Amino acid sequence: MHSLPALAERRTYAPIGRTVTALGLAAVLVVSQLYASIPLSPLTAADFGVAESALAWSSTGFGLAYAFGFLFLGPLSDRFGPGRVMVVGLGVASVTTAAVALAPGVSALVVLRAIQGFTAAAFAPAAMAYVAEQIDPRRRAIAYTILTSAFVSSAVIGQVGAQLLGDLAGWRAVFVVSGIGLLACAVWKKLALRSDLAGRPAVSVSPWRVMLDLLRNRRLVLLFAAASTLLAGFVGAYSGIQITGLADHDGLLWLRASALPAMVLTAVAAPLVTRIPAARRAVVALGFSTVGAAITAASGGGLVLIGVGMFLFSASVVAAGPALVESISDSAGPARATAVSIYSFVLFIGASLGPQLAVALHGAGFVVVALAITVLLALGTLLARLAR
């Protein structure tokens, strides 16, 4: 059996532009499903006759199932190939996503969202593993940054798109359209991307044994712990802005959309930023995310200052994500897909708990929510520093 390095010497790499475009667009659509429920909560609450805070479990249900799905579905890429896992996963997720529109009440919505989250989990670790196998190592850091930027930008794109489409056609239409889009992505991946490498090395008979081996690595454990704070703070901040009533409908749209330039600029700067070692980038980016959260806490509820803080916060999250992924992949050897699955698991466990943090503290006001997030991100920065 040939090793991947030996095979790499006799093959050409996938074109980065076409590959990253295909993966990036699917990434935005898949991960947007987590965030779509935040702006849709007023419409859904009115439809079901409940308070908006009761719908926080819709995001949490998706996020928890999405996170656990990584542990079960992510290692399949090491065994069957990331390209195959992506196509099948997107096809199944298209069905479960469209099914969310059929929910007759809150309980059914939470269950359907959890099923949707579990099936959607096949994509992200497979996409990261595909980049690791198919992209030239000299350009891989750029591909990671762009792909992770797509994942993180979905936090804004998903909210803005869901708010606009929900206002136009209702909350159920958002999930029907998303399901159609995911099916189109599955077909596109099948036709446009290169086939998986032949002669794949088996990393272990049991993916659970691989996970346990990875969790014995102190550096990886610290990086996983740091990653858990990233989206917990990010989703918690946007959820806090929503449920504390800081802004009206148009103000919320402005706050969400204002973060997009930060994400675009960070992705464009990837060729320069990726010259910095991944471990150092992770620490610096998490540090700046802490500063961004602190600015929102110091805003006193003023939308302009909150916008400035979320701009910096968003840019930092985009920079931190690929740095953490690169650091983890470099330390995981041939079990990179499994390692990225654990990373994705802890990342989205944090994301699923973010809305609950906001709900728990929203009675004290957004400033208290933002202070808690600042402390959480400071802890994440410290953990990343200890992992260097």
UniProtKB/TrEMBL annotation:
Q: How does it sit in the membrane?
A: Multi-pass membrane protein
Q: Where is the signal peptide?
A: none
Record's superkingdom?
Answer: Bacteria
What Gene Ontology terms describe what this protein does at the molecular function level?
A: transmembrane transporter activity
Record-annotated membrane-spanning stretches: 12-35, 55-73, 85-104, 110-130, 142-162, 168-188, 220-241, 253-274, 281-298, 304-325, 337-358, 364-384
Q: Which InterPro entries match?
A: MFS (IPR011701), MFS_dom (IPR020846), MFS_trans_sf (IPR036259)
The family assignment reads: Belongs to the major facilitator superfamily.
List the protein's name. Answer: Predicted arabinose efflux permease, MFS family
Top-down, what is the taxonomic lineage of the species of origin? Bacteria, Bacillati, Actinomycetota, Actinomycetes, Pseudonocardiales
